[in-house]
Amino acid sequence: MSWAVKKKYNDLLDREEGGYEKKLWGNSLNICLAYPNRYRTGMDSLGFQTVYSLLNQHPSVLCERVFLPDPGDEGFFSPGPLSLFSLESQRPLREFDIIAFSISFENDYPNILKMLDMARTKILSRERDEADPIIIGGGICVTMNPEPLADFFDLFLIGEAEEILPEFLSHLLRTRKAKETRKDNLIRLQKNVPGAYVPALYNVSYQVDGPIEKMVPLEPSLPRKIQKQWARDIQAFSTETVISSPDTDFRTMFLTEVSRGCSRGCRFCAAGYLYRPGRFRKLENLEKSIRRGLETGRKIGLLGTAVSDHPELIDICRYILSQQGKIGAGSFRLDQLTPALLKLLKEGGIETLALAPEAGSQRLRDLIRKGIQDGDITRGATNLLEHEFFHVRLYFMVGLPTETTADIEAIIELIKRLSQFSLPTTGPREKRFRRITVSINQFIPKAGTPFQWYPLENIQTIKKKIQKITDTFRGQGNIKILADPPKRNYLQALLATGDRRVGKILLALHFQRGVWSKALKEAFFQPDFFVYRPRDTTEILPWDFIDTGVPKALLISEFKAARQFSTEKNC
What we know:
Blueprint: H1 2-15, E1 17-18, E2 29-35, H2 39-42, H3 46-57, E3 61-67, H4 74-77, E4 98-102, H5 109-118, E5 134-138, H6 140-144, E6 155-157, H7 161-177, H8 182-192, E7 196-197, E8 202-206, E9 212-217, E10 226-227, E11 243-244, E12 253-257, E13 259-260, H9 270-274, E14 279-280, H10 283-295, E15 299-303, H11 313-322, E16 327-329, E17 331-332, H12 339-347, E18 352-358, H13 362-367, H14 374-386, E19 391-398, H15 405-420, E20 422-423, E21 431-432, E22 435-442, H16 459-472, E23 479-483, H17 486-497, H18 501-511, H19 516-522, H20 528-531, E24 546-547, H21 552-563
Parallel strand pairs: 2-3, 2-4, 4-5, 5-6, 10-24, 12-15, 15-16, 17-18, 18-19, 19-22, 22-23
Antiparallel strand pairs: 1-11, 6-7, 8-9, 13-14, 20-21
């Protein structure tokens, strides 16, 4: 039946538009870019597509792709007769020089081990030899905290791909010509490539009661801090859809990045701190990308950490409309919903807007530094209805630091207020929201943010809070409540804030075929140590060796300010 899997992959390729056709095998550095989830999810990742394009633009590099096989196909690879192979040439992954994982979500970590096993590649980096591919990882999860994956990767690249990849490839190709050993190659990369991190070259020791005692390089010549790399001039390149496919959720949309980073300073937000400073692409540099997207006949998806803060957003929307295009976008800030913007978004074909109040009470919005006032919500709702946006999606968090029962009631009251909010009209019907979709997400502490010292709230407590919100609106057809299972959030927090010892749980999980309960029982330490324990600002955190460009002193001051319910201006 292996022919059926190969035909399935060929059919996927036949339905794609774009991409690269390079015939350099044997004369190039061969890299298989891996996404640790299904094709549909991976090909919707603009970061994944960007790395694929950057690698293939290099004249001495051949880059192909691989994804986690669909559930019905996994049996062919593990423990089946096939070794996991690439999408394009269908070569086994172990024949590539490098397997490079693009990692965006902590809950995908178990899939990494699964894919390495399917590829018949040694899972632990210390067991690999000269015949094995080098396993590297990059992406926002790695930039935040790579340590739970340290045992499985030979090398991590910390930072933004546009900045780090050219230097990395240049050094790698030089060492390849010199025919250095695997170990010497990795040492040279660690010494010479800013943002490179080889976990095996660093030793971590722990205190008796659990926290990290110290992390030191094995050689004095190795850097003690890894400098996160970031693209200083995003006007110099485009970040956009490279390959389009009808087999993805974004099949009708051409994505183009209009901004990166954010200066708002929301204390919980990893993207807001890890992608600092805030950078906006100028309209003059976006026009070519927009025209390329419109040539495909799809709507233009505006992507960025802070799209609604873009100083030229009105002009960008006008340009798309002047080219007879349609507009797609993610969430907007409530205080940015001006009549002029909403008019353009409506003309651009948007029917549902996503908004993120995050918290129901003003006290908690101030605590997390959201910068949204009650008046902004009222004005935003009025403007939405005046421009006939009758469908909205709201994002709230539960389990935020200092959250009380009153804060949960405030979420409920805000949803009720919006569901009952209306504008009088001259017609027979009032203008009101006809459908409100509410996404309830648990606060999960993230590395590199002021809230990294806070613990996750208990699963049972979160269940009760979500249940209270859900029960309140049960049977109200125009209000739909969505929420992830709290157990899933526990695992995400473990993987997001753990150190190298969590890697042993991941390995146990792999051998237990994905049964978390069994893997957690096998742990030689209590996983709650990472999830439910408040951290002290004086302790060494697993990710402290990464210099993100944001001083730890600033994070500590923001953390302390939050504890004092402070609402200073944005930094």
